């Protein structure tokens, strides 16, 4: 054994790497951006941002998404949706890097951590947060697990736009203000649409294999042209909603996210010119970057006093 191999083994890097793959770090912007935007909207309203609330909300959101990703990895393999023929990134259960039991235990641990971070949020926000928190945990598992898996029924897109957009942004805002505004819903819809672009690209890429095992995503149900149109609409709506901020302010919140337009154009050009292939893994990573650029632009626009 070489010295490098020995060092890696002693540090346990070989054991950690499959878990890093399983949590799908390129998609975690979907959990991070809503909390940042919700907190920025609180600041825009002239109210103090309770950073412990934002941190707890962020950690709960991230661990719910990681838990959902792990359940998806394990159950898709068990149901035959992930095979050696898949064109997406390597999945740890299908490739044998981790066992089904290990991945499901990891998912349960992530949901438990999310629950723990949710306890102070419940104390802060009351019964609405109880409802949101329990629904998030249950549906995180039900995304691919249980008797009515959302992803297999074509409801995964709706789940993402609601829970990683409207509810995540609105919930963060509510925890600080105990109120919900039109601005919070608009910001939530913008963020949620871009989070759903990730799922739509993922499902379009996997549609040839998903259709063979009864995973009836929207791309499988309605075909390639619908899938492309869905991605186009989900990408365009957040930018079009920038007119709300141009009308009601702050103007910067409508202008700064435009920095993401060139990347959005590249994604859409690629999706419309190419059939599902490993190239879509690149588009998926680009979609995650787009949500991050758009979300940070929106957040900076909300708190900016530059008067652009």
Biggest beta-sheet profile: none
Q: What top-tier CATH class fits best?
A: Mainly Alpha
Counting DSSP E segments of at least 2 residues, the number of strands comes to 0
String of helices and strands: HHHHHHHHHHHHHHH
Q: What can you see in these coordinates?
A:
The chain is 76% helix and 0% strand. It has 308 residues and is mainly alpha-helical. The chain has a single domain, classed as Farnesyl Diphosphate Synthase (Orthogonal Bundle). The protein starts with a helix and ends in a 5-residue tail after the last helix. Mean pLDDT is 89; it is low at 1-11.
Structure at a glance:
The chain is an all-alpha fold and 308 residues long.
SSE diagram, text form:
Elements: H1 3-11, H2 13-23, H3 29-44, H4 51-78, H5 100-125, H6 127-142, H7 150-153, H8 156-177, H9 182-210, H10 218-222, H11 224-240, H12 242-248, H13 251-255, H14 261-273, H15 279-303
Helix pairs in contact: 3-4, 3-8, 3-9, 3-15, 4-5, 4-6, 4-8, 5-6, 6-8, 8-9, 9-11, 9-15, 11-14, 14-15
Search tags:
single chain; 0% strand; disordered N terminus; 15 helices; Farnesyl Diphosphate Synthase; mainly alpha; 308 residues
């Amino acid at each position: 054994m070489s010295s490098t191999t020995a060092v890696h083994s002693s540090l346990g890097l070989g054991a950690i790497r499959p878990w890093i793959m399983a949590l799908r770090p390129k998609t975690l912007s979907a959990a991070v951006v809503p909390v940042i935007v919700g907190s920025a909207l609180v600041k825009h309203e002239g109210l103090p941002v309770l950073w412990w609330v934002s941190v707890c909300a962020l950690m709960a959101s991230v661990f719910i998404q990681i838990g959902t990703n792990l359940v998806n990895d394990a159950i898709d393999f068990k149901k035959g949706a992930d095979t050696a023929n898949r064109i997406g990134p390597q999945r740890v259960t299908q490739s044998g890097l981790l066992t089904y039991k290990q991945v499901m235990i990891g998912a349960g641990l992530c949901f438990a951590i999310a629950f723990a971070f949710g306890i102070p949020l419940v104390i802060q926000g009351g019964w609405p947060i109880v409802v949101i928190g329990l629904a998030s945990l249950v549906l995180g598992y039900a995304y691919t697990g249980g008797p009515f898996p959302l992803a297999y029924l074509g409801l995964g897109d709706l789940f993402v736009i609601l829970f990683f957009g409207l509810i995540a942004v609105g919930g963060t805002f509510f925890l600080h203000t105990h109120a919900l505004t039109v601005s919070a819903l608009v910001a939530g819809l913008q963020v949620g649409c871009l989070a759903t672009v990730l799922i739509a690209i993922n499902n379009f890429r996997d549609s040839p294999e998903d259709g063979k095992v009864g995973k009836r995503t929207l791309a499988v149900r309605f075909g390639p042209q619908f899938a492309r149109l869905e991605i186009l609409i989900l990408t365009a709506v957040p930018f079009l909603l920038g007119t709300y901020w141009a009308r009601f302010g702050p103007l910067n919140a409508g202008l700064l996210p435009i920095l993401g337009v060139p990347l959005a154009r590249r994604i859409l050009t690629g999706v419309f010119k190419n059939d599902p292939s490993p190239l879509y893994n690149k588009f998926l990573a680009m979609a995650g970057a787009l949500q991050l650029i758009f979300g940070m632009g929106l957040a900076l626009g909300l708190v900016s006093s530059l008067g652009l």
